[in-house]
Write a structure and sequence with these properties.
The protein has about 675 residues and is an alpha/beta fold. Helices cover about 40% and strands about 20% of the residues.
Amino acid sequence: MTPADRPPAGSLGELPTEEIRGELAALDELAVDELVAVLAADAGRALEAVVTAVPAIARAVELATARLQAGGRLVYVGAGTAGRIAVLDATELGPTFDVPAGMVEAVLAGGDGALRRAAEGAEDDEAAGAGAMAALGVGPGDVVVGVSASGRTPFVVAALRAAGERGGATVAVTCNPSSAMAEVAELSIETVVGGEVLAGSSRLNAGTAQKLVLNALSTATMVRLGKTYGNLMVDFRPTNTKLRDRATRIVQVVAGVDEAAAHRALEACGWVTKLACLVARTGAPPEQAARTLEAAGGRLRAALDARQAPAQRRDGGARRLGVGAALVGGRLVTGDVSVEDGAIRAVGLAGSGDRVAVAGLVDLQVNGYAGIDALSASEDELAAMGAALARDGVLAYQPTLITSDPAVLRAATARIGALARRAAGPARILGVHLEGPFLSPGRAGTHPVAALRSPDGALAAGLVAAGPVTMVTLAPELPGGLELVASLVARGVRVALGHSAASAEVARLAADAGASAVTHLFNAMSPVTARAPGLVAAALVDRRLAVQVIADGVHVADDNLRLAFAAAPGRCSIVTDATSLARAVASARTLGEVTIARDGGVARRADGTIAGGTTPLVAALRHLVEIGVGLEDALAAATERPARLLGRDDVGRLRLGAPADVVVLDGDLRLAQVLAAGRTVDPAQ
């Protein structure tokens, strides 16, 4: 930049980062806690600005990845605070990702001495900026990232211009729009944070935004270069006790071995974590594993895939599911899934297509299925019900008993417990859900009002003692309701609020007492009104409560389904509330002691009251996606979240080494395959 090109000095004050915020004129008069609160709250501006810049950051990652894969370098250039942040990021990449010396460089105006002692005048030295690029030999294989809050720092602008003239790719990271850096750079990342709490102090939000941008840029680039396995650092340098412990734990996770085996592999591999993962997982000698890694371009996932392929051809034990993605930890991981000896062997293998693998579906409210009612069924009938559920992808469920005579409830609970102990069939019984008898007469729904009971600790204890009761739905506003919540929770039972006229205040008190869920949101409970938020609103705003909702398109309006998933992110699970009419040929059946009939696909009592569901869980999942709920959100709502509500980590999740209870869905989210412990379940007809 020549003196003629330089903006007039007066224009500095016109930059958004230089804004003097009048609302903070009394900042120095604030109490300490108020001052800190202002600073902490204002930092949110930085995060918001970075989120807005995600598309530009992603393009920079693609640019950097391509250059580094071809043997080029990532070079940061900055001055002052921005330059120190750039040096920090470059320095940390070495030990974090075992980046070879020289692959990532950082140029700071004023040299390394400016790290500890400010050299503010150095930022104006244009010749030094251009000279630094020449000294590094920047060329067509490199990408140069200039960092400056103002976007007009002469040292950085000159460096970017020189790098571009030498054939390098150039990226500007600034906190002001339409900057001088943006004019000379190939790509501009603009995080417009506005004025600082202290006018012009770019070490605050501007510095935070720049750190976040560089974190995202460098980390994503390293991930794309194969420096990680999933979200595990497998390419770091374990140079001290803490890092050696971390390396051991990572090898354990990747290879599915114990601590001693992981430690032996690391020692045999000279504490090269990635190599030790491959050795521990495949049993290959270190020298052979090293050649496999080299052939895979240093990518552990590709190396594991290469090592597994011969074993598949040799013994046929392992097999691919032919999917393009799998739900792991609530996120879709691209790639295929391998199953061997009834267990998940690998995820994220080379694969494509629109099929997706998820853990076996989990339904926490099944009153009946395939013509069988849970309350009156024999053990053999219950086993047949479980088999029918498995054919529809449900591999873990809670048989649900509606209100009845206590003796009938105890007998049914005992039968379900006996079947659960036998572990008969592909679908696992998670426990018994007692939906009643401690419900509100005014919100009974299809429950027989005459059989309802007031909360009674002794009666509840007798019901729980009859078998594996894992959940009880009750109305907390009834006399003694809150005390019963606490009593049941103390016995290890999950308490859900439902069939209730509870106010929002009572719902909060129930959550205070230990209630952890709400049964079929919107149905059979106090609604939202202007001055009485009721149980519905309480469920949506109280993060202690898991939200269960029937998503069959009948029980709850689509807008209310969308509302629930938007208002309670990460807390919504879907249930079917299935009755014996689900997957049944006959049009009339029973729900407990109540006669129900199918009317236009809907289960109803004789008086027209909706009486449970008839829709398979996979169809409800599909309906969620059709109305706009995100795919990951919908899949988690039918797998991981209901399992988490019961505190179960052995169902609802795809995990390496765990039993292969897997459902494969096609591009239209219809069942393509169901596996229980690796064995194919005959498809539903």
